[in-house]
């Protein structure tokens, strides 16, 4: 039975500025605001899933959880067993957490830097229900998952062991630029996690991939109109070939909004080490921020 995680399913953050996402998500990124529940959580959609980003109102501002998807109940059970066998104890979700995440089953545990990871299967969805918040060709999700996370970690080798042995990821490639970065995949997306060796642990950015380059261009125009800081100009990364810009958010981390990423073939990838982070562009305009784990 496969224990392979199929991708990043959802991301949860906690923020005192949750309400600002109601405008930011749809207007800047083209997300859809999901129907509001009584729990006050701002839920944002990028496809037919119930939601992909959940912003929980509250303090302190922080990275709350990353949800990793398993394809079905049997794979979920096997993946939980692998995590336990690797010496990481898991806790089962409460009924309230399952209702919040809109999933059938979920367990959670912490990584060596204190990030909360969740394994789940069976997220609610509704066919042909996604309507972008502004004219938009849509987001690349499906077998690629939601996108990728770039996280600051204290020790790259500890992180490598965690993702390979506990979560079953594979290394795509590495980068020795200003920082040492490890790129990890679990599906055709070039990487679902970029682990950056840094003094502080935290979430640097969530990368979302638009179907059209124009969707990224329009985001830059909307940032200007709404006074949203652009952290880095349009540029292209040498390894995943993504053309992207980095945008500030209401909650202390960035969105890398990209287009044109290349895929990997899991099991056939050859690891290389890049010496530069960008082929062109990505000029820093305003300092990036970092969302610590709660
Ligand atoms: Fe990235």
Textual characterization of the structure:
- Helix content is 18%, strand content 34%.
- It has helices at residues 21-29, 73-85, 95-101, 156-166, 213-226, and strands at residues 7-15, 32-33, 42-45, 53-57, 62-69, 91-92, 103-110, 116-123, 148-153, 170-176, 180-185, 193-197, 202-209, 230-236, 243-248, 254-259, 273-274, 280-281.
- It has 5 helices and 18 strands.
- A hairpin with a 3-residue loop joins strand 10 (170-176) and strand 11.
- It has 294 residues and is α+β, with helices and mostly antiparallel strands.
- The relative contact order is 0.17.
- The longest helix has 14 residues, at 213-226.
- The strands form 2 sheets. It has a 10-stranded mixed sheet with strand order 17-10-11-12-9-13-16-15-14-18, with helices on one face. Strands 2-3-4-1-5-8-7-6 form an 8-stranded mixed sheet, with helices on both faces.
- The structure holds fe (ii) ion (FE2).
- Fe (ii) ion is lined by residues 148, 150, 194, 205, 207, 256.
